[in-house]
Amino acid sequence: MHFALPPRKTSNPPPYTRPSKWSPTNAAHSLRKQRTLGVVIFCASLVAFFIFLRTVTPASVAAANIPAGTPEVVIVTVIDDKVSQAYLDRIKHNREDYASQYGYKTFYAHQKDFDLGQAPKSWALLPAIRKAMTEYPHTTYFWALSPHAVIMNPTQSLVERVMAPKKLESLMIKDQPVVPPDSVIHTFSHLKGHQIDFVITQDAEGLCSESMILRRGDWANFFLDVWFDPLYRSYNFQKAENHALEHIVQWHPTILTRLALIPIRTINAYTAQMSSRGGPATTIMDDDFVARAVGCEKDPTRNCEREMTPWFDTWKTKYDVKHSHGQF
């Protein structure tokens, strides 16, 4: 008699599979996990999209929100309280004539307009720029220009002459000591024109804030806040806001990363050779953009109005568009 043998056990049994234990509780938990994952993915995609808009196409997005008729540039001039009305009229005439050719606007303030406490009156420049930004909330560039300067050659807009990114890259002085001649802090070598928010010149004594350009934005707000800090205004800097500027540029990399030095005659040529401040390299030549009587307001032996009158007359004869049409 033969009996059936039981099946042999394989020496390679299949992997053990845990039986599924479905329950309404487990199903709900799984659904919640899927929904949470979906929300996380959606939020991450949304954040990435907004980062893309702000970093890849900022100019086009910003341009869409600028109202028609907004000036691209506002020229900011802070008037010395001592100037005569005739001199003030010449200053305004010069700037408004230039601005009218390119759709720009002008903004004037007096030093006495601002409560500076015991700080030198020259600090008024900073709240004046802030006030101009408030009055023109969509303007891109603010050009702060000394009242003792004349726009001599209006044949190009400020953007074409300086601020267009490729043009700015061709002008930028890289790896330059911020405070000459031997500051260990140098301008950066890797910056591109579109990264610059602050354009300024330099002579043999340091940075020259009497003609400088600031691009609107969060960085500009931060920069003006730092520069106008009460600690700096109360500190006895020899050259007030100018030395405060040199201090923060050297000690705050966040500011240096947005700064471009350009050749001084680009926007700030001197009307007379100042050997102690750069010599011939700073002195105005034919067809230069701006002429400025450097230091005249701080020297009691000099008279700014007398020094600048020949330059106003030269500009009026050669370039005064409104005057040539009988508007003045």
From TrEMBL:
Keyword Ribonucleoprotein: no
GO cellular component: mannan polymerase complex
GO biological process terms held by the UniProt record: protein N-linked glycosylation
Statement: the UniProt record of this protein carries the keyword Ribosomal protein: no
Pfam annotation, one family: Glyco_transf_34
Region (Disordered): 1-27
Protein family membership: Belongs to the glycosyltransferase 34 family.
Protein known as: Uncharacterized protein
Origin species: Gomphillus americanus
